[in-house]
Structures are given as C-alpha cells and as structure tokens.
Write the structure tokens for this entry.
Amino acid sequence: MSCPGPPWRAVLEENPAAVYPPTHWIPADSANYTVSGRPAAYPVDLVVIHLTQETFPDAMRIFQDPAAKVSAHYMVASADGYIGQFVREKDIAWHAGNWNRNTRSIGIEHEGWIDRPEYLTDVLYRASARLTAAVCDRYGIPKDRTHIIGHDEVPGSTHTDPGPYWDWDRYLKLVSDGR
C-alpha cells in the first residue's frame, strides 16, 4: 500500500496550471533568509505585496548584502516585468517584518515608490499577477484580499507599501484571470 504523501503534494499534482512566468535566479545572501522545508515545515497561505522604495538594482544589492537582514522571494522590474527570484519558496524570506507572516507567505517586491505611480506599469502588474496566480495555484491559496495582502497590512508593520496608487481591483482581476 502506498502512502499518499503530504497534502500539499496533491495540490501541486492537481494544479499543473501553476506555471510560473520566466524568472531568473539571483540568490540573496544566506544571512538574509532562513533555510526551511516549506510547505511541509510551515504551510504557505499568503502572498505579501511590496514596493521596494528603491530601483531594482539597488534592492538586489540590498538582498545580497549580508548585513541587510532582509530579502524577498521575488522582485518584479517596472520597465519590462523582469522577475528575479532571490529566495527559494521552500525557504523563509525576511520581508514582512513579522516572523509568523514570513513563515506562511511568499514575498513579492515590485520596483517603485509609493508616491511615484509611474512605476506601476502595465507590464509590472501583468508579470506580477502571473507570478501571484502561479503561487496561489501551487499552494491552493485563494486569490482574494484576505490571502493576497500589502506589506502595510502585516500585523505590527511600520511600512506603507504598496501604497495608495497600487490598484488592488485591477491586480486581483489580473491574478484571477491568471494573466
């Protein structure tokens, strides 16, 4: 008699549509995240949306600086939707400022500033939405505002991103459509 395996494995097998957009591996320094065995070690049930308050190259350098003590799983570039992956999803990125939320979430940074809406381009929204849809499909995360949250909604957060110009209605429609 074979063992069915962990419940998350069935989610992966039942969701072949969890196809990720092209991403590029740019490892964060190992001092900026916790090695883990998610989702077996910690269930993944949230996506946390961030704005970098930096350019993509500057945020990348921060994630690679061992003194920074910060990282995210992914970052999306404003101009072309390029997606860099900095921490493997099985590991815990230090992005939310709350250990409980870090253990349960995938953190997606977006190049831009909360007071500069010109960085929130169509290509950024579309690339990010495809990524978020794939993450949600992989882990069985509902595609709603309860499970896709802003950094500013993390308990104890002192951050204000993704800010007032982030179009949640548009974003969730794109995520739900898988594009």
About this structure: Residues 11 and 139 are 6 Å apart (CA to CA). The longest strand covers residues 105-110. Residues 122-139 form the longest helix (18 residues).
